[in-house]
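Hello forum,

I keep getting stuck at the same step: I have a sequence, I want structure tokens, and every attempt I make locally crashes halfway through. Rather than fight my setup again tonight, could one of you with a working pipeline run this one for me? It's a single chain of 268 residues.
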Amino acid sequence: MELVRRLYIAAGIIWGVILGIAAGLYVAAGVAGIFWLYIFGDNTWPEWAWGAAYTFGIITGVLTFGFCIYFSWSYCKRLPLIEANQNKETGKAASLLALAFMVVIGYLAFDNYQTGKHAALSRNLVEAEKRRMEDASPHRKVGEDDVDFYCRVTRKQSKLELIYKGDRIKIVPELLLANGQVLFAAAGKYDLIKELAEEILIREEIIAGNKILISNFAILPEDVRCGEKLFFIRSNASIIQNPIKELERVNCSIPSAKVVFPMAVRIQ
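Reply #2:
Ran it on my machine without issues. Output:
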């Protein structure tokens, strides 16, 4: 019978700790919730409010722990009076202990899972932010070619809409000057953009009476594009020595449409 008593006392202690912590946290959270809903809201809380929540939680936890110990001790005192079967009582006490250990192990496993999940979520958020910063960066990534760079840094930019040879096209009003050549993009039918590339002119006055002129453009292959209909046009001749390198904007003209519009210059 002494073994049964010890098992019940041990079960009472362990369950007292488990239920005491759970009850204390629940009550503390409840008191804090009442303060938040009915008294302080989102304003700054005084120190005594937090102290009151913690105090109620601690008192509840201690009382719960004490009740578990008292219940276990009281039951042990009654064992000889109820002529309990020792094997049956031993099994009940052992079951209570086993259940308590299962609860503790389950909690620790769940806490470990949550910790790992939060760590993975934090890593994913950091990586996503890193990718976002890289995508938003105006600088070229390692190994990024001219087309991919242009597509990444200008894709969301508003486009200039024109009627060209009776059809609607859109031009991204920004040039990329890289590797001695000019690159820009236009949206529309591929064959129409191809015709546009053959006549488009870029010119700008550098010093009074002195102008640069860039012509001789060609459309890149149809499979080199950004999205479904944004095709790329590149200058055929190298202009690396041209003064366009010193400009922020140039004028682009389409003679057949009698249209002239400014284009920003991005240098890489």
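The helical segments are 2-39, 47-78, 86-136, 146-154, 190-199. If your local run keeps crashing, start a new thread with the error log.
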